[in-house]
Amino acid sequence: MPMKGSGSATGWEETNRWDRGASWLAYPEETMQRASHALDTDAGVVVVDPVDVDGIDDLFAEFDEVAGVAVLLDRHKRDSAAVANRHDVPVYVPEWMSGVASDLDADVERVRRQIPGTDYGVHKLVENPVWQEAALYGDDDDTLVVPEAVGTADYFLAGDERLGVHPMLRLTPPSRLERLDPDRLLVGHGHGIMADATEALTYALRGSRSRTPSLYAKNVKSLVFG
């Protein structure tokens, strides 16, 4: 199983469908399990951290016209410019996030607290020289979108976790997530948590440090033995 898929993604998998959106995995068999999201809002569809695939525009059209593309992690530029240019919409980038806008060959709109015309607020999670990450929270239906700090791909998970803190953040989990009370949680790596999301998030954050040794041991074993 490759760490990261490449080439034309034709066998993509839709996930996490609910009445206000859906997610997809461009390469379902890859270890990284890169997930992207289409959020249906009053302004139109906001596409989050997209990995572009053949036919994905048909998924967007099931909800509405595309209103914009959001980049929530400095290293998740992915195919955001390609999707934005195809739909003639801007790429939304948090105003405090550096080193992203200049790398995008598309119109960029800086956002501060809210994605324009939507109920999705922008929350700063991590800001340091090597990691800049924001989350989105939809007030209308308590949907939380976290691109990297937590995930459900296997290399995030220790023990009986349904959701795990990223291996590099295990000892300093993002405390700002503790303030949120989501009904569903969409992640940038893996399938989302569509039921009891707050319970899964709380469990992941509170046990992050204590379960770190077992996660590291599991990942090292997987790396060495495959």
TrEMBL record:
Concerning InterPro entries, the annotation shows: RibonucZ/Hydroxyglut_hydro
Protein name in UniProt = Glyoxylase-like metal-dependent hydrolase (Beta-lactamase superfamily II)
